[in-house]
Amino acid sequence: MQEIAIVDGFLKARYIFFKWRYSLVLVNKLILSLGMACVTGVLAQIKISLPWTPVPITGQTFAVLLAGVLLGRWWGGISQAIYVVMGVVGVPWFAGLSGGYGALIGPSGGYIIGFILAALFLGHFTDKYIRARSFLPMFALMLFANFVLIHVPGLLQLGLWFHIAKGTGLTLWELLWMGTIPFVIGDITKIVAAAMLAKAITPKEAYNGEVDAVRAKK
After folding, report:
1. For residue 98, what is the DSSP state?
2. What pLDDT, in 10s, does the model give residues 74-93?
């Protein structure tokens, strides 16, 4: 009986949290967004450099994937926009405790812009569809967010950077070898962990008039 009470309490708490954060006033939503930007900055310091690419492995994509889930429609993306803007103006919370506009025009700039797109995308589906909060749908959404919305602008920027800064044009294979292939295993690991966490912490009932609320009850 005690275990049932604990589970019931957890299910009620997660619903209350998401209902609460959805109905917050603007100032409080901005505070939560700033907090998530700080989490992204902390995880960005988990950095592993590779000898054949100027793009490092970092932990910040885990925060990006969860930003949309935790903050929802618009606000997950806003949290990453805050992260990007404050980093550009000098807050040293990009990878390697760096800051400034150089990060955006450097080889990793496209990935950083992709963080905003990915968080916006995941926040939209988390708030709009109850069924998106299960593991497999969330895993699929996070795969798309990571390898399309983050990696595609990342690869475009990386190729442009090599062309301008190094005077070298990269083949598609060279671009993928530098900007995507080394990160596949790590990214999928982070996606699995983030999707599992998202499944656990998101309510499976409506809290803001989700479009599939009636079907989800069946």
Report:
1. B
2. 999 999 999 999 999 999 99
Number of domains in the chain: 1
Q: What is the extent of the structural domain holding 173?
A: 2-217
Residue 64 half-sphere exposure toward CB, CA atoms < 13 A: 31
For residue 54, give the nearest of 190, 184, 177, 191 by alpha carbon. 177
Q: What is the CATH number of the domain that holds 175?
A: 1.10.1760.20
- With tokens 């990214």, the residue in question is 187
Please indicate, yes or no, whether the overall pTM of this predicted structure exceeds 0.85: yes
Amino acid identity at 161? W
Position of tokens 């992204």? 40
Angstrom distance (rounded) from CA 140 to CA 129: 14
Whole-number Å distance between alpha carbons of 57 and 50: 8
Distance between CA atoms of residues 44 and 24, nearest Å = 28
Backbone dihedral angles phi then psi of residue 58, each to the nearest 5 degrees: -135, 170
Q: CA-to-CA distance for 49 and 51, rounded, in angstroms?
A: 7
Contact 199, 126 (CB under 8 A): no
